[in-house]
Write a structure and sequence with these properties.
Blueprint: H1 4-18, H2 22-42, E1 48-49, E2 52-53, H3 56-83, H4 89-111, H5 115-133, H6 139-169, H7 171-174, H8 183-189, H9 195-212, H10 221-228, H11 231-261, H12 270-287, H13 294-315, H14 318-349, H15 359-362, H16 370-383, H17 390-405, H18 410-433, H19 449-464, H20 468-480
Antiparallel strand pairs: 1-2
Length: 482
């Protein structure tokens, strides 16, 4: 069962790449994504075993990835209808094929119980995403794709070297062979691994997969990629791909922490993660004010939230990791919903000289469509993390654990969060309620806005009324990875 949600997207990508018009491809892409989402739910009943099996972390984020793939593919139907003339039919076929490849590679990385297979999955998703970003074939899109390819190549090279070092560090405990590459076996024997070599491996892995998670200092690819790639694909970047990289870091961090707790020679991973997390948070906070393009602006928002999750993992302990994982889930739902609303809003306004996604072009959205304006403003307000936003809950958990476990860093964390929240709120009013550009006409909101409402409802439900089974899963995963 667990192989189906992985291999179906790859098989579907082959069909999507060879046949169909843009609109037929968009509908087929959505149909495939629906089946994949249902299969990610079926994995809960049959999580598999061996090289590919889903632990609690894989189950949780696999279902989330399948859901994001479904909702963004449904919104993509309206996007293709509006933007069909921008690309040749062969490029639309390639685009839909690459959407499925990214989905399949992400699920493979989440379900892989092998450090080498995880690396291969991240590399596959990177290549597919690079090709997708270059599809508009403009000079700026090719530049963004090239930047992502170079920085991604550096990151994946560092991650590969770190993976090899982990395998070497496992030799004293597990010997050569596949057991020394299994996360389950490594976790069980981490106390007996070579701590010094494990520390060196973690440094390479942190910067390698940290590149994919858009952590400072190798974050530069993300704003350009958001701004130049096909807009619905941005929803995949803003959540599942970043989550996969952060989950990889969390899994390797756990090995280091177990070795430290057992009195091994490894260094505590906390300072590494706290430093990169705070650096990412403040970099985003100081970069917001200079962004005039909404997609670049929200690209820096993704850097901010990756930093918050990394910071939570650096604090450590079940509660902080619970808060970090909850933050990842909520921000993924929020950001993907926000980009669906943003694409719909830009479609209502049409093309413009300053850019289709410029804040000046999108201001006063409520005058074009009240429903779109309210959904866009609600998603932005929720992303600021202030009550009653769902992110307030996860950030409150992280802050409270920081005060208890490492109070010295609670002040910079609080300042960074306030700085980012102020920058986000500064744009909500003009974007939603400000004066609209001349000759703005009222339009009926598209059906895709109901997907945004669904995302916002899920964020509120998970934050303030989390179902018992979901809470138990979060708690189990957090306890296992403390």
């Amino acid at each position: 069962m667990i192989l189906l949600p992985i291999f179906l997207p790859f098989a579907g990508a082959l069909a999507l790449g060879l046949w169909g018009t843009p609109r037929v491809g968009a509908i087929a892409n959505a149909g495939l994504s629906l089946v994949v989402f249902l299969l990610t739910l079926a994995v809960f009943a049959a999580p598999g075993h061996g090289l590919i099996h889903a632990d609690g972390l894989g189950l949780l984020f696999g279902a989330l990835t399948g859901f994001i793939g479904l909702t963004t593919s449904l919104a993509n139907i309206a996007y293709v209808r509006e933007a069909e003339a921008r690309l040749r039919p062969v490029l639309w076929r390639l685009y839909h094929a690459l959407c499925q490849v990214v989905l399949g590679a992400t699920l493979l990385g989440l379900y892989a119980d092998n450090i080498g297979l995880l690396w291969a999955a991240v590399e596959g998703a990177t290549i597919a995403a690079t090709l997708a970003v270059s599809l508009p074939r403009t000079a700026s899109a090719l530049e963004a794709a090239w930047k992502y390819f170079i920085l991604g190549g550096v990151g994946i090279g560092l991650a590969l070297f770190g993976t090899m070092l982990v395998y070497l560090a496992a030799q004293p405990a597990l010997g050569p062979g596949f057991p020394a590459m299994s996360f389950a076996a490594l976790s069980a024997h981490a106390a007996k691994m070579d701590g010094s070599l494990l520390t060196l491996a973690f440094v390479f892995i942190l910067f390698g997969y940290g590149t994919k998670a858009a952590l400072v200092p190798l974050h530069g690819w993300l704003p350009d990629t958001y701004a130049e790639g096909p807009a619905p694909l941005t929803a995949a970047f803003s959540g599942p791909l970043l989550n996969l990289a952060l989950i990889a870091i969390l899994r390797f961090r756990h090995l280091l922490q177990v070795n430290v707790a057992a009195g091994g020679a490894a260094m505590a991973p906390g300072p590494f993660l706290l430093t990169l997390g705070l650096a990412s948070l403040f970099l985003a906070g100081f970069s917001f004010t200079r962004r005039r393009d909404a997609r670049r602006f929200f690209g820096f928002s993704s850097i901010e939230h990756s930093g918050i999750a990394a910071f939570a993992f650096g604090i450590g302990g079940p509660a902080a990791i619970f808060g970090g994982l909850l933050h990842m889930v909520l921000q993924t739902l929020l950001k993907s919903g926000l980009f669906i609303a943003l694409v719909s809003a830009a479609g209502l306004r049409g093309s413009a000289a300053p850019g289709q996604y410029a804040f000046s072009h999108l201001r006063g959205m409520i005058h074009s469509s009240k429903y779109t304006g309210w959904m866009l403003g609600g998603a932005m307000f929720a992303l600021a993390g202030l009550p009653p936003s769902g992110l307030f809950v996860s950030e409150f958990i992280i802050i409270s654990q920081t005060v208890q476990r490492n109070p010295w860093v609670s002040l910079p964390l609080g300042l960074g969060l306030l700085l980012c929240a102020a920058a986000m709120l500064r744009n909500v009013g003009p974007l939603v309620f400000g004066p609209a550009p001349p000759h703005t006409k009222a339009h009926k909101a598209g059906a895709e806005m109901h997907l945004v409402a669904l995302h916002l409802a899920l964020v509120a439900g998970l934050a303030f009324a989390m179902p018992g089974p979901v809470l138990a899963l979060f708690s189990s995963v957090s306890g296992a990875l403390q």
